[in-house]
Design goal:
The protein has 212 residues and is α+β, with helices and mostly antiparallel strands. It has a single domain (27-210), classed as Aminopeptidase (3-Layer(aba) Sandwich), CATH 3.40.630. 37% of the residues lie in helices and 26% in strands. The protein contains 7 helices and 8 strands; from the N terminus they run αββαααβββαβαββα. Strands 1-2-3-4-5-6-8-7 form an 8-stranded mixed sheet, sandwiched between helices. The structure holds coenzyme A. The site of coenzyme A has 21 residues, from α3, β5, α5 and α6. Keywords: Transferase. Pfam families: Acetyltransf_3.
Amino acid sequence: MQRDLLRESQSRLDRERLRPDLQRRDCPVLLSQRLVLRAPHEDDIDAIAHLANNEKIATMVSRMPHPYTKTDAANFVERTKEGAIGNCVYAITRADDGEFLGCCGIENMPDDESVAEIGYWLGEPHWGKGYTTEAIQVLIDMIFRTRNEVDHVDARCRVVNEPSRRVLHKCGFQFRGPGMIASLAVGGSVAVEWYRLERRTWMSLKSWGGQR
Ligand SMILES: CC(C)(COP(=O)(O)OP(=O)(O)OC[C@H]1O[C@@H](n2cnc3c(N)ncnc32)[C@H](O)[C@@H]1OP(=O)(O)O)[C@@H](O)C(=O)NCCC(=O)NCCS
């Protein structure tokens, strides 16, 4: 019996290695009014390398190297396919023309399945158009709708990161406390604010919209 289970598990792993898309069965393509969120792929490498090579982005996220090269972008795409980065990583693209705008995703939180932590960045030419708020709202909807075990979504942003704090407020997150996290590009620890969106708050916000 145990041998059968082991064999089945091994064959599943083999299938997933041959078909990396199978690992993303919990990461459906997401659509919003102006955006398509889908898995990053090789065609995105040039755009990722171009947009991510920006100190203003690297110093606001925890693990992005700076300078950021085409090799970094190729590694990133490869590792997302292997499931080595995060739980679900999405390319944020414009629905109209397919242009790559940035990335968002769910971090791996192996110890506690009741929490999903999200991260995001957008290329500077696309800032200030509401794209990230739109992307994070569909990402959150997907998390709460498809993962019953998740009770709250967390996010951390640097104390100095006004635009990111604003995105979190617009998505219904509430401040929970201060903290410190390591930043690769800064080369040390930075002060952050910890935000949380509880499932019950999300449900209330969704039903509030429907009552208008
Ligand atoms: C944070 C980031 C993702 C926001 O992307 P975006 O698509 O421009 O965000 P949105 O347009 O949805 O919302 C931005 C909000 O911040 C506001 N904002 C922008 N600059 C601001 C500033 N200096 N002070 C206060 N608010 C500011 C905008 O006015 C907007 O709010 P509004 O809709 O109420 O006017 C983008 O700036 C980015 O990638 N920054 C670098 C990486 C990063 O910070 N990632 C998040 C790590 S936690």
